[in-house]
Amino acid sequence: MENNKIFTYSYSALQNKEVESIRKKYLPKEENKVETLRRLDRRAQSAGMVTSLTVGVIGCLIFGIGMCFGLDVFAGADWLSVLFCVIGAAVMLPAYPVYRLISRKVKARLTPEILRLSEELLGS
């Protein structure tokens, strides 16, 4: 007499979806051409943003220190107010030109790859 007892259990649809979403996190990512094109486009669009924001924020903070001196937070330091405000403004001014410069360089570097991928996807 054979004893073939088989136990099977199946997950519900909701549990299957959760198991699949967890499984996808740990599988190696396969990037197709459309995803590569999107990634390159995002990189070209956001190039220089971090650098220009850093320059602008640093300049703004220096300018703010000058404003503190101007409000007599530190008594008798009016000349420091003018000094810090001028330095802060001088640091803030090149933020946009830095953004444009870096954006143009990155865009020029990525343009051939973006055009090649887009032509492949369009089939022309």
Summarize the structure.
With 124 residues, the protein is mainly alpha-helical.
Task: Describe the secondary structure blueprint for this structure.
Layout: H1 13-26, H2 33-46, H3 49-70, H4 78-92, H5 95-122
Helix pairs in contact: 2-5, 3-4, 3-5
- Which range does the strand content fall in? under 5%
Rg from Cα:
29 Å
Average pLDDT: 86
What is the succession of H and E elements?
HHHHH
Count of helical stretches: 5
Largest beta-sheet details: none
What's the total number of strands? 0
Structural class: mainly alpha
What percent of residues adopt helix (DSSP H or I)?
A: over 70%
End-to-end Cα distance, whole Å, is 69 Å
Low-confidence stretches: none
Pick out its properties.
124 residues, 5 helices
Task: Explain the overall architecture.
The chain is 75% helix and 0% strand. The protein is an all-alpha fold and 124 residues long. Helix 2 runs antiparallel to helix 5. The model has no long low-confidence stretch (mean pLDDT 86).
